[in-house]
Amino acid sequence: MSIPITSLAEFAARSAWLQPHRILLMAVAAALVISAALFMRWDWLPNYYGLALQGIWRTIWILVVTCVLGIMLAVPLGLAQAAGPWWLAMPANAFCTVIRGTPLLLQLWLLYYGLGSLFPQFPWIRQSELWPYLRQAWPYAVLSLTISFAAYEGEVMRGAFAGVPRGQLEAARAYGMRPFTIFRRIWLPQALHRALPTLAGETVLQLKCTPLVATITVVDIYAVASRVRQDTFIVYEPLLLLALIYLIISGVIIFLFRKMEARIPVRLG
Amino acid sequence: MIETLFAPLLQVSTMDLLALEPPGWGGNLLRGLLNSVIIAVGAYGFGLAIGIGGAYGKLYGGPIVRDLLEVYTTIVRAVPELVLILILYFAGTDLINRVLEALGYARIDINGLVAGIWVLAVVQGAYSTEVLRGAILSIPQGQIEAARAYGMAPMLMLRRITLPAMLPFAIPGLANLWLIATKDTALLAIVGFNELTQETRTAAGQTKAYFTFFVAAGVLYLLLTLVSNRIIARIERWSRRGMPAVSGSAR
User: Fold this and answer.
1) CB distance A110–B82 less than 8 Å?
2) Other Cβ atoms closer than 10 A to B130
3) What is the pLDDT of residues A214-230, one digit of tens each?
């Protein structure tokens, strides 16, 4: 560690990550990026700058809202399947199976086109205070993404709840904790801890689902890229930039989850 | 009350709408389902081939091959399928047409089926690379060493030892990938390919019976999933034959 490094070559030779072939590959990658910046068309960028920022914000907003709501739904779903009586476990299981067995795009269109065509036929819905919201697309997007996330995470939480050692719960009961206190203090924290590595991956999968909302006219970053393509007939540049943006957001999600996992002390046997 | 609630659903008889003959749209939905299944099977098969190659490259390849495969799997698993489909769809058709033009042939319209299969195969390949890499690592490595000691050629070893021995470890992950493949075919509706979701949208838009058709398509997808689950359970039992029972890790 304290050995002074005299030259870059020596540093590269000593580092496990920075090997000679990596330097070569990075040079190739840098050359590709620079040639993309120089030879591809980016003149549309200033015109769509504001719209793109708005789109990124909307993508992140949808991701965060649906993940938080989805987890809140997933906890009771998982608990019902792991420890509930059969009349709770069966509907929860059926819900998870149906949602996980059909494509999200279909669910989204069912809600948006189906409910959207059904609601206006009822006068009392049109006169209700919710009507201005029900006429927009985003409530349907949030609803269907939340349901989908809840169903997938319900399965994850089922495993996590079932995986908490029995002894922990028995010890809590021996201390005289009431059932809800046991759940709040012992069962839920340990289950969440167990589920955290899976949740990181699932959150990235949820990010990958967000562009579907563009098909029901929600203007997220994907919709902005499609609009650039339609307006300017430039095909590759917006798509490549879009892929880069999603890569960065995925990286940030994984980084945040690593931080969260690091906060929880782990005792290795 | 119930009747008023469902009145919009009952405007036209559901059975008439879903009839198989042309006034009904059932035939179109089933054709869409067939297209979906063909794409899923094709993409899954090619994805597996990519995955076997990728897993071998990641485990036994040189440093450059390993890094390039890492880049491939990372990018594919972080970028939405929808974006990849558009990039690969446009880039693939464009590339083929440019090559054809350079060779002096006329431009061709790429068949949607072929494009869909190749695009989804690239996506599936990245995931199955990871699944198969993990499965190969789970084989007791002595078995592979023993095969090498017998002087088996690499292909023979792959066929006789590695693939059969890794199968029980790989099947839960591969089963998940198959289910993802069947559902990912719905994304091809966005590039306008006539698979089940696109057919459903057309039918729903024509008849305004959105609920009927989307629910019907949902039932078809669900049936596909449930039938697949049955078959997967059988395959899993078959691949585990002769192994001691372990608590299932399938998700």
Assistant:
1) no
2) 17
3) 988 888 999 999 899 88
The answer to whether A207 touches A222, Cβ cutoff 8 Å, is: no
Query: Which residues are CB-neighbours of A57 under 8 A, at least 6 positions away?
Result: none
Q: What is the pLDDT of residues A155-168, one digit of tens each?
A: 999 999 998 888 99
Using CB atoms, pick whichever of A106, A113, A211 lies closest to residue B218: A106
Q: How far is B183 from chain A (nearest CA, A)?
A: 5
CA distance A220 to chain B (A): 13
Inter-chain touch B83–A211, beta carbons under 8 Å? yes
Domains along chain B?
Answer: 2-239 (1.10.3720.10)
Chain A residues whose CB is inside 8 A of the B183 CB are: 102-104
Of B63, B86, B197, the CB nearest to A103: B197
Q: Which residue has the tokens 């620079």?
A: A34
What is the per-residue pLDDT for A74? 94
For residues A70 and A199, is the Cβ–Cβ distance under 8 A? no
pLDDT confidence bin for A247, thresholds 50/70/90: very high
What are the strands, taking DSSP E only, across A102-170?
none
B197 vs B32: CA distance, rounded Å: 8
Please give the Cα distance from A28 to B32 (Å, whole number): 43
How far does the CA of residue B156 sit from the closest CA of chain A (Å)?
A: 31
Nearest alpha carbon to residue A37 among A49, A26, A29: A29
Interchain CB distance below 8 Å, A106 and B217: yes
pTM, entire model? 0.84
Instruction: Rank A40-44, A151-155, B87-91, B95-99 by mean pLDDT and report only the highest.
Output: A151-155
> What pLDDT, on the 0 to 100 scale, is given for residue A61?
94
